[in-house]
């Protein structure tokens, strides 16, 4: 098998770790900005299979990453369930809110998401036919808790306060929303796999705000249900879970959910993650995104440190979170060259 990402996910320790980057298709690239301008706005780009294929391929052409991630967004699922969704330039997403049983009742069923999402599956099919033979295609979805935080608040929130409040004041609605999202996510990821995604990743960007029992109930349990269902429907397709800022929750996450790989952000050190997380399976991460802005010797020494800390087990090199628009594209090359310097 030539695909280094799949070999690593199967547990092989390769002399050179495979690398890709969260948000690798994005505003730091001039070619992305040009295609996005052609599409008009961000959502039009997501739903245009030709242009979404093009922006997915741009970072592969420029850098030769070992994996391509489907260009889409975690908030397409709420939209496919019937929520209104729009993006305010410079501010972020806005959605119609779910604050009680009446809002929940207006949403569609999990099996009804495919009509809206059909163009996304077309992008996956395009990519499956267009990628170089050595490049792995990753599909993705948001985890139920993270997607719910946006649906409940109607926007991004620094502390996920509205979602925590609904959990405390109307747990039945909160849990019914998480159940619906869990089922819809199984449908969505399953369809991505059928269209040609070779790996899928579950982004739980706000898992870190789930404290105490809530982490087990609303980060671990939904991930376990989604991964369990996908393993039945698509045995052999590896799954990466990303419970961002999971802290001690990262420990045992492989076993608790069945994930093949656990991605770690940069709130933990690579040395800690190698000792406590990589012992249980493949890891991914965890260079701080700011090094893509600042570069230089600090970038080089951090890449070496992280690479070496994770060298004793299977590891996929990545950032701890997405690359930011102000990043310098040359620093991405420096990261890749440093990772591969001994190859
Ligand atoms: O990684 C990739 O290159 C694949 C595409 C991808 C996007 N979003 C494209 C995008 C992926 C995997 C995501 C995931 C996503 N989307 C997450 C989870 C990961 C994370 O970052 O924590 C979240 C929370 C979202 C929701 C979202 N989408 C927000 C809050 C925003 C606005 C903030 C911002 O960065 O502008 C987006 C917009 C978005 N999604 C952009 C891109 C390239 C920027 C939109 C633009 O071009 O204007």
UniProtKB/TrEMBL annotation:
Q: Which InterPro entries match?
A: UROD/MetE-like_sf, Uroporphyrinogen_deCO2ase_HemE, Uroporphyrinogen_deCOase
Q: Which UniProt keywords are listed?
A: Cytoplasm, Decarboxylase, Lyase, Porphyrin biosynthesis
Tell me if Cytoplasm is a UniProt keyword of this record: yes
Q: Name one GO biological process term.
A: protoporphyrinogen IX biosynthetic process from glutamate
| CDD domains in alphabetical order | URO-D
User: What residues does the record give for site: Transition state stabilizer?
Assistant: 73
Fetch the Pfam families from UniProt.
URO-D
Where found in the cell? Cytoplasm
What molecular function does GO assign, one term? uroporphyrinogen decarboxylase activity
User: What's its EC?
Assistant: 4.1.1.37
Residues given in the record as substrate binding sites? 23-27, 73, 150, 205, 321
Report the principal subcellular site: cytoplasm
Q: What class of enzyme is it?
A: lyase
Annotated ranges, domain Uroporphyrinogen decarboxylase (URO-D): 18-27, 138-154
Q: In which pathway does it act?
A: Porphyrin-containing compound metabolism; protoporphyrin-IX biosynthesis; coproporphyrinogen-III from 5-aminolevulinate: step 4/4
Gene Ontology cellular component list: cytosol
- PANTHER family, from UniProt? METHYLTETRAHYDROFOLATE:HOMOCYSTEINE METHYLTRANSFERASE RELATED, UROPORPHYRINOGEN DECARBOXYLASE
Q: What is known about what this protein does?
A: Catalyzes the decarboxylation of four acetate groups of uroporphyrinogen-III to yield coproporphyrinogen-III.
> What HAMAP family does this protein map onto?
URO_D
Sequence similarity: Belongs to the uroporphyrinogen decarboxylase family.
User: Which protein is depicted?
Assistant: Uroporphyrinogen decarboxylase
Q: Which organism is it from?
A: Jannaschia pohangensis
